[in-house]
Design brief:
Blueprint lengths: L5 H6 L14 E3 L2 E2 L2 E2 L3 E3 L4 E2 L5 E5 L8 H13 L6 E5 L4 H4 L9 H28 L6 E4 L2 E4 L5 E3 H8 L28 H6 L14 E7 L6 E4 L3 H4 L4 E7 L2 E6 L2 H8 L5 E3 L8 H11 L5 E6 L2 H4 L6 E7 L11 E7 L2 E6 L4 H12 L6 E5 L13 H13 L2 E5 L2 H6 L7 E9 L5 E11 L6 H4 L11 E9 L13 H18 L4 H7 L5 H14 L8 E12 L2 E13 L5 E11 L6 H20 L5 E2 L2 E2 L17 E6 L14 H16 L16
Parallel strand pairs: 6-7, 11-21, 19-20, 23-24, 27-30
Antiparallel strand pairs: 1-4, 2-3, 5-6, 8-9, 9-10, 11-14, 12-15, 13-14, 16-24, 17-22, 18-19, 18-21, 22-23, 25-26, 26-27, 28-29
Helix pairs in contact: 2-4, 4-5, 11-12, 15-19, 18-19
C-alpha cells in the first residue's frame, strides 16, 4: 500500500466512503507535495470534511417520525463520531445506490439498521487503517472516540477530519465487527433531535414552503363524482382575475394557474364547470356497507388455516360478533402539494413524498423520459400517515408544468385533500370463537369483507391471519369487492381494524367466561415471553385490577413481525365516568418493546402522536359518500383531536438487544381496542363499531 507523507496528508481535502449503501458520488481534489492532482470521484455514504464534520445523507423521508435523528445515530455510534459533528443532508432518489427509499410501514429503522451500522463500522475501520499507516503501527494499537483516533500508550492522536483523505484510499473491509450494546454511547440515548432548532425557529422547509423566482401556483377543480368527466366550462372570467395566467385541462380535473394561491382559488370558483357525472352518481357508503355485509357469508380468499376451525365452529357453536369500520381520510396538517418543472427531456421536482423512488419512476413513465433525467428534491413532510406515498398530486403538478414548460407548485385545498384523497378502505369483520372447558379459546375464525382489489387484499386483511395467542384451531378468510373509491394505506394500515376486532372480541370472550381480560391473555401466551413482559409491565404501571372510584380500564396487545423482527406493544386506557354518565379519557399507559431502542424519546413521541391519531379515529373518524360524493369537506365535519381531549400518556420503553423496528404506525392498533374495552367496561355496552362518537365523552 502506498503511504502518504504527513504534510501532504494534512493538506488533503476529505471524503470518506464505506458501507453497503454506497452512492452519493463526491468529487475530491487534493494536493500532495505541492502538486495538484486530478479530481477523483469516490462512491461513499459518509462524507467527512477537513473540519471533522460528518455529513450523512438522509435516504428516508422525515415526516415527524424522527428518522432525521435516529438514522444518523446508528452511523454515528459505529463510526465513533461526536454527535455534535453530525450534519444531515437529503439524499437524492436513487434506489440503485441506497436501496428501497419508501418511508412507510415503519420500515426505516428496520431497513437501515444493518446497512447504517455496516457503513459506520467500515468507515471507522478505514480511519483506523489510515492512522496506523501514518504511525506505522498495527491497527490494533489504535482506538477511537468522539471523532478522534488515538495511539494507545502515547499522546498521539489524529482527528477524523485529518485522516479522511487518506482513509478514503484504504480498502473497504468486507466484514467488520459491531459494537456490543454495553459499548453504546449514542444508540439508546435520547439525544437532541438534529432538526429541532430549525423547526422551532421556522427555518424548516416543508413542501408547501417551496418558493423561488418564476414559480407559479396552481389549484385544481376536482371531478365532483368518482369517474365524472368534464362537459364544459367558461375560462374567461377566471382569466380576468389579476395574476391568473392559464386554465388547463388535466387528467384529474381543471387546473387554474396564477402567480399566487389566492388568485388561483378565486378564479377557480368562476369556471362554471358542468360535468357528466357517469355511472357512480348514485353510489353511497351505505350501499357499500350492505354489500360488504352480504359477502361475509361467502368468503372466497383463504388467508390462513390451522387445525379445523370450520368444523369446531359449525352449527352455531361459539360466540360471534360483527365489527364495522368506516372509510377514513388522512387529513394531514399540510395538504398534499408538489412542485414540478418540466423541460425538454428532463424534469425537476420538489415536495413532500414518502416514496421518492416511486415519484422518480412515475414521472419518468409519464413523460416518457429516462429516470436519470428526473431529479426529486424531498422536503420535510407536514404529516404523511400514508397519504404522501401516493402519486396523484405529483401527477397533477407534472401535467400542469408539462403544458406550460414552466415551474409550477400545485396545492390542494383542504376540501380537495379530504374529498378527493386516497382512503383507508371500509371493512366489515365477523369473528367467531369457542371457549374450551379450561376457559381457553380453542377455536377462532375471522372473516373480512372489504373493498379494493384482491392484489392488494393486505390493505384490509393484514392481521386477520395472525394472533399472538395459542389457539389450536384457527382460520382467516376474506372477500374483496371492487368499488370506484381509491384506497390505500393509512397509519396502522389494516391492523387498526383487524387488531381492534381481535382484541375487543377477546375481551368480550373473557367477560362472558368471567375471566380477567389480562389473565386470559397471559394464559394464552405460553411461548411469547416478550408479549407476556409488555402485558405485565403495562399492568404494573397502570395498576391494573386496583379498584378506583368511577375509574375504568381497558387493555389491548399488538404485535407484528417484519423481515424477521418482531415488536410488542401493550396499552391500558383509563376512563373516569362522571355523574351525568359522560366519560373522560384521563390516562393511557404503554409498554413498548420495539427491540433495541435507538432514541427512547423518539419512541415516546411516536406513542404520544400515535395515541392522539387513534383517538381522532375513535371519536370522529368517518368518511360518508352520498350520490357519488364525499360529504365531509374540512375540519368542521371531519374533526381531529383537540388539545382538551388529550389524556396524559405514560410510556415505558422496554430495553433489550433484539433488532430494532420502527413504531410510527404501530401504536393506534393497540390504542383503539384498549379504548373500546375501557368504554365497554364503563358503560356495559358492547363496542363493535367505530367511530364511537365524541358525544359520550367530555373534554
Amino acid at each position: 500500500m502506498k503511504t502518504f507523507n504527513r504534510r501532504a496528508f494534512l493538506q488533503a481535502s476529505s471524503v470518506l466512503g464505506g458501507g453497503l449503501l454506497i452512492g452519493l458520488a463526491m468529487p475530491v481534489s487534493y494536493a500532495q507535495s505541492g502538486n495538484e492532482r486530478k479530481e477523483q470521484t469516490l462512491l461513499p455514504l459518509i462524507k467527512i470534511t477537513p473540519q471533522g464534520e460528518v455529513v450523512v445523507p438522509l435516504i428516508m423521508s422525515e415526516m415527524g417520525q424522527g428518522v432525521y435523528t435516529s438514522l444518523p445515530q446508528i452511523i454515528a455510534e459505529e463510526l465513533d463520531a461526536s454527535w455534535q459533528s453530525i450534519k444531515v443532508v437529503d439524499a437524492e432518489a436513487d434506489e440503485e445506490k441506497y436501496g428501497y427509499q419508501g418511508t412507510l410501514a415503519s420500515l426505516s429503522i428496520l431497513l437501515a439498521w444493518r446497512s447504517h451500522r455496516d457503513a459506520g463500522a467500515k468507515a471507522r475501520h478505514m480511519l483506523i487503517a489510515a492512522a496506523a499507516d501514518i504511525w506505522q503501527v498495527e491497527k490494533s494499537a489504535c482506538e477511537t472516540s468522539q471523532g478522534v483516533v488515538y495511539l494507545q500508550g502515547s499522546d498521539k492522536k489524529l482527528t477524523y477530519g485529518q485522516l479522511a483523505s487518506l482513509a478514503a484510499k484504504m480498502p473497504v473491509p468486507e466484514k467488520v465487527s459491531y459494537k456490543s450494546p454495553e459499548q453504546y454511547n449514542i444508540i439508546g440515548k435520547s439525544v437532541q433531535p438534529l432538526d429541532i432548532s430549525d423547526k422551532v425557529t421556522g427555518k424548516t422547509q416543508f413542501g408547501i414552503d417551496v418558493n423561488f423566482p418564476g414559480l407559479l401556483t396552481s389549484v385544481i377543480l376536482k371531478k365532483p363524482v368518482f369517474g365524472a368527466k368534464i362537459k364544459s366550462y367558461d375560462r374567461s372570467a377566471a382569466l380576468a382575475v389579476r395574476g391568473v395566467s392559464a386554465v388547463l385541462e388535466i387528467s384529474s380535473g381543471l387546473a387554474v394557474v396564477a402567480s399566487n394561491y389566492w388568485s388561483a382559488t378565486k378564479a377557480l370558483r368562476l369556471l362554471e364547470a358542468k360535468w357528466d357525472l357517469g355511472k357512480y352518481k348514485s353510489f353511497s357508503s351505505q350501499d357499500l356497507v350492505k354489500q360488504l355485509k352480504n359477502k361475509l357469508s361467502s368468503p372466497d380468499i383463504l388467508l390462513k388455516t390451522i387445525g379445523h376451525a370450520d368444523k369446531q365452529l359449525a352449527n352455531n357453536q361459539g360466540l360471534s360478533a360483527i365489527f364495522e369500520f368506516p372509510l377514513l381520510a388522512h387529513a394531514p396538517m399540510e395538504p398534499v402539494n408538489f412542485t414540478a418543472h418540466v423541460q425538454s427531456g428532463k424534469c425537476e421536482l420538489w415536495g413532500p413524498t414518502q416514496d421518492r423512488g416511486r415519484v422518480k419512476e412515475t414521472v419518468a413513465k409519464l413523460l416518457a423520459i429516462s429516470a436519470d433525467h428526473v431529479k426529486v428534491n424531498t422536503t420535510f413532510i407536514g404529516g404523511g400517515f400514508g397519504r404522501k406515498v401516493q402519486q396523484d398530486f405529483v401527477i397533477d403538478a407534472v401535467e400542469v408544468s408539462k403544458q406550460l414548460k414552466l415551474p409550477v407548485k400545485v396545492v390542494w385545498s383542504r376540501e380537495n385533500d379530504i374529498q378527493h384523497g386516497i382512503f383507508r378502505p371500509m371493512s366489515i369483520h365477523k369473528l367467531t370463537a369457542k371457549l374450551g372447558k379450561d376457559k381457553q379459546v380453542s377455536a377462532w375464525q375471522h372473516t373480512v369483507s372489504a373493498h379494493g382489489s384482491k392484489e392488494q387484499a393486505w390493505l384490509t386483511t393484514a392481521g386477520a391471519d395472525h394472533l399472538p395467542y395459542n389457539i389450536e384451531h384457527f382460520q382467516a378468510n376474506a372477500h374483496i369487492i371492487e368499488t370506484p373509491i381509491p384506497v390505500g394505506t393509512l397509519r396502522g394500515i389494516a391492523h387498526s381494524s383487524t387488531n381492534f376486532a381481535n382484541e375487543v372480541f377477546l375481551t368480550q370472550l373473557a367477560m362472558k367466561a368471567e375471566i380477567d381480560p389480562l389473565a386470559l391473555r397471559l394464559s394464552m401466551l405460553r411461548d411469547k415471553p416478550r408479549a407476556i413482559h409488555v402485558l405485565k409491565r403495562v399492568a404494573a404501571i397502570a395498576q391494573w385490577g386496583v379498584s378506583k372510584n368511577n375509574t375504568y380500564q381497558g387493555i389491548a396487545l399488538f404485535d407484528k413481525t417484519k423481515e424477521g423482527s418482531t415488536f410488542y406493544i401493550a396499552q391500558v386506557v383509563e376512563l373516569v365516568k362522571r355523574g351525568d354518565g359522560k366519560l373522560k379519557i384521563t390516562k393511557v399507559y404503554t409498554a413498548a418493546d420495539f427491540g433495541q431502542p435507538i432514541n427512547p424519546n423518539g419512541i415516546k413521541a411516536q406513542v404520544e402522536g400515535g395515541t392522539a391519531f387513534a383517538l381522532s379515529m375513535a371519536l370522529y373518524g368517518q368518511i360518508d359518500i352520498e350520490n357519488g360524493q364525499v360529504k365531509q369537506s374540512n375540519f368542521h365535519d371531519y374533526q381531529v383531536l383537540r388539545i382538551p381531549f388529550m389524556p396524559q400518556i405514560i410510556t415505558e420503553v422496554i430495553e433489550n438487544n433484539e433488532s430494532p423496528i420502527g413504531c410510527g404506525e404501530n401504536i393506534n392498533p393497540a390504542t383503539l381496542p384498549a379504548l373500546a374495552n375501557a368504554v365497554a367496561k364503563a358503560t356495559g355496552q358492547v363496542i363493535n363499531k367505530l367511530p364511537l362518537g365524541a358525544n359520550i365523552f367530555v373534554s
